[in-house]
Design a protein that fits this description.
By secondary structure, the protein is an alpha/beta fold. The protein has helices at 2-111, 147-159, 176-189, 205-213, 240-252, 271-286, 301-314, 326-339, 358-365, 380-387, 412-418; strands spanning 134-140, 166-172, 193-196, 217-222, 234-237, 260-265, 290-296, 320-323, 350-355, 371-374, 397-399, 404-406. The protein is built from 11 helices and 12 strands.
């Protein structure tokens, strides 16, 4: 029982002691806990501050980084732009170079008869087309007929040359029948153009009709022929009748007491002979002039000389020699010189010639002849221009410009400018 009572007092005491110990422990621990908590608080604050600073640093760093990035981006953009511009410039230059190359290629291609562009797209090279050669057949009088004819023949050969794109065939004769045969041969050969200075004005109808049927175009030059105008393209002429009229009108201005004329004719039936004879015949018919002798010498110098020598031998008076070209006038003057008969300015006999060879104009300038009628031999270029469409005339008859020269007014410049040959 007593032991129970002891336990009754002992147990509570122990509990109280334990409680006091616990309290003491608690109270002793609390400051430590507070210190720990304060330390933790400080650590937390430091951590928070550090975190804030870190956040600020990060923010600043981010901003700096952003700026740097922006700068880098700007730099990069600038660089990209620069690169782009450089690339553009280079591209432009390359394009320019390429264009230049293409242009050069195009130019080269054009030169080679091709179209420019991508070489892979180019068409196969076609053979270069040669210029079309124009076939021309010329029927003419021989060059030894006269100085005029020599110049006319040479002019035709120079203009219708191979270098000028022509294939020229020529035939020279003073026989009309030979000329007709040659023309027919040229038609059979297939010439493109037939050019004719006919010996006679008639007999050409069938030949020109045959040429028309074959599609061959005909041009007449120097001498007209009597055919339908539809059978030829154009006639390039000296106006022979006008030449004769000009010479006869000049002769009338000399106011001779009488006109007694030796008339030396060219090839009978030729346009030159017909035209130059007509004006003088009109004076014979009117009675204003007297025909002492009228004979053809067919453009030949010696034949003309023989005619004048025959008249001199007959003793018949004459004071005018009207020769239808310079060569025959020259032969006539030789006959006068042999007979001791003066001629020219202030001479016994008036000398008239035609064609205006340079040597004949020198005779005029020296006063040994009186008058020379111009007859231009330069027909070839006019015909060539008509063939190539460079020239267009309303009339089929194209008259070349001509004049006449008087011994009293001719100048050295006239001789040099209008004289034919040397």
């Amino acid at each position: 029982m007593k032991s129970h009572k002891k336990l009754f007092f002992v147990i509570p005491a122990v509990i109280i002691i334990i409680a006091i110990v616990v309290l003491l422990v608690i109270f002793s621990i609390i400051p430590f806990i507070d210190a720990v908590n304060q330390k933790d608080d400080k650590e937390d604050k430091k951590t928070e501050k550090r975190e804030d600073e870190d956040d600020d640093d990060k923010k600043d760093a981010k901003e700096d980084s952003g700026k740097d990035d922006k700068d880098d981006t700007d730099k990069k953009d600038d660089k990209d732009n620069t690169d782009k511009n450089d690339a553009k410039d280079n591209t432009g230059k390359k394009d320019d170079v390429k264009k230049d190359d293409v242009k050069k290629d195009d130019d080269n291609d054009k030169d080679n008869g091709k179209q420019g562009g991508d070489p892979d797209d180019k068409k196969p090279v076609e053979p270069e087309k040669k210029p079309e050669v124009i076939k021309v057949g010329v029927i003419n009088n021989p060059p030894n007929e006269s100085g005029y004819r020599e110049k006319n023949v040479r002019d035709m050969e120079q203009v219708f040359s191979k270098e000028n794109g022509y294939d020229l065939k020529t035939f020279y004769s003073q026989r009309n029948s030979d000329q007709l045969q040659a023309a027919e041969s040229f038609i059979s050969d297939g010439v493109d153009y037939l050019l004719i200075s006919a010996m006679e004005t008639t007999g050409w109808d069938d030949i020109l009709l045959k040429a028309k049927e074959k599609g061959i175009k005909v041009y007449l030059f120097d001498r007209m022929i009597d055919v339908d105008p539809n059978l030829y393209e154009a006639a390039i002429m000296s106006d022979m009748a006008k030449e004769g009229e000009a010479a006869v009108n000049w002769l009338l201005t000399q106011n001779l007491a009488e006109y007694r004329v030796i008339h030396i004719q060219g090839a009978m039936g030729s346009d030159a002979q017909i035209g130059r004879t007509a004006a003088l015949n009109a004076q014979f018919m009117s009675g204003k002039m007297t025909c002492v002798c009228q004979m053809p010498a067919t453009w030949d110098e010696k034949a003309a000389k023989d005619i004048v020598l025959t008249v001199i031998a007959s003793g018949e008076f004459f004071n005018v020699i009207y020769a239808e070209n310079d060569g025959m006038a020259k032969g006539a003057v030789e006959a006068l010189d042999e007979a001791g008969i003066t001629h020219g300015v202030n001479g016994q006999v008036i000398i008239i010639g035609f064609d205006c060879n340079k040597w004949a104009l020198r005779e005029l300038l020296a006063g040994r002849w009186n008058y020379d009628g111009q007859c231009s031999p330069f027909h070839a270029q006019i015909i060539s221009d008509l063939i190539r469409g460079v020239r267009h005339d309303d009339s089929k008859i194209i008259i070349v410009d001509e004049t006449g020269f008087d011994a009293r007014t001719i100048t050295k410049d006239d001789v040099d400018r209008y004289g034919l040959g040397d």
